[in-house]
C-alpha cells in the first residue's frame, strides 16, 4: 500500500512540475507525471531490496526526491531537444523538397 502512495505522490509532483515550468508545449500532458511516478516506484522497490523498511522515513524522502528530480530533469531537457529535432527535420524536409523541384 505504501508503494501506491509513494507512486501517487511522484505522479502529483510530476504534474506540478509540468504546470510550473515553461516549455510544456514540447511534450505530452502525461509524460512528466508518468516519469515522476515510474521513477518514484522504481526507486522505492530498489530501496526495499536494499533493506529499507516500509515504515522508515528515509525510503519516503529518497524515493520522492529522486522522482521529483527526474521529472524536473525531463522538463528542463525535453524542450531543447524537441526544438533541435524539429529544426533538423525541417532542414531535411526542405532539402528533399528542393531536390525534387
Describe this structure in words.
- This protein has helices at residues 2-20, 31-49, 57-100.
- It is mostly helical and 101 residues long.
- The chain has one domain (2-100).
- The longest helix has 44 residues, at 57-100.
- The model has no long low-confidence stretch (mean pLDDT 93).
Largest sheet: none
Number of helices: 3
Low-confidence stretches: none
* Structural class by SSE content: mainly alpha
- Outline type: elongated
Mean pLDDT: 93
Distance between the termini: 62 Å
Number of extended strands:
0
Oligomer: single chain
Strand share of the residues?
under 5%
Helix content: over 70%
Helix and strand pattern: HHH
Q: Please tell me how large the radius of gyration is.
A: 19 Å
User: Could you say how many structural domains there are in total?
Assistant: 1
Q: What characteristics describe this protein?
A:
101 residues; mainly alpha; 0% strand
Can I get a quick summary?
The chain has 101 residues and is mainly α. The chain has three helices and no strands.
Amino acid at each position: 500500500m505504501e508503494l501506491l502512495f509513494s507512486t501517487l505522490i511522484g505522479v502529483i509532483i510530476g504534474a506540478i512540475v509540468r504546470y510550473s515550468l515553461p516549455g510544456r508545449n514540447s511534450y505530452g500532458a502525461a509524460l512528466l507525471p508518468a516519469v515522476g511516478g515510474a521513477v518514484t516506484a522504481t526507486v522505492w522497490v530498489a530501496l526495499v531490496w536494499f533493506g529499507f523498511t516500509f515504515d522508515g522515513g528515509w525510503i519516503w524522502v529518497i524515493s520522492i526526491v529522486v522522482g521529483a528530480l527526474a521529472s524536473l530533469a525531463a522538463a528542463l531537457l525535453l524542450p531543447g531537444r524537441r526544438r533541435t529535432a524539429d529544426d533538423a527535420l525541417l532542414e531535411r524536409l526542405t532539402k528533399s523538397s528542393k531536390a525534387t523541384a
